[in-house]
Description:
- The structure is a single chain.
- By secondary structure, this protein is an alpha/beta fold.
- 39% of the residues lie in helices and 16% in strands.
- α1 links the parallel β2 and β3.
Amino acid sequence: MQIFRHYEGLPADAQGGVVAIGNFDGVHSGHRAIIEEAGLIARSSLSPWMVLTFEPHPRSLFRPDSGPFRLTPFAIKARLIEEMGVDHMVVLTFDREFSERSAGSFVSDILIGGLKARHVVSGYDFAFGHKREGTCDLLLTMGKERGFDFTAVSAVLDEEGNAFSSTRVRDCLRRGDPRGAAKVLGRSFEIEC
């Protein structure tokens, strides 16, 4: 998997792909469903399979004084995504300037101008742009207007009907329940030094 820390000037083989977008902290079962959906579409259309993610986690900018919350440091997240078979990962720096980018600019400059996305895939609750003004509805509308397809992946539920989420993993870990965290993650929770 090639990792890029920018979206401009990507090589031709890293453009025009199917792009899964999200922070993907934990790369849990719900995240994997989003990334796998992008992979299915990419393989069926013979397009590059891409992940677009952000570092550091946006919460570190907006709530720097909150307690520990990070489930997967970048190196682990990259390894887990690479193990899925993804071709390219674009990692954009999430700082104050980036957080003030409008949703329209995100789509026009990054998804269309930089990545030349053919198809975008996100979770049903994905929000982006300044003050989270961008939604799945906006991606669907702009995609129709600007020439890319969009898929929102519904919540992935466990056998009890609970959605897989990073919050659930954190709650399990706070309660001292690593087995519960592993159930949500789809693998054992790990700490790497």
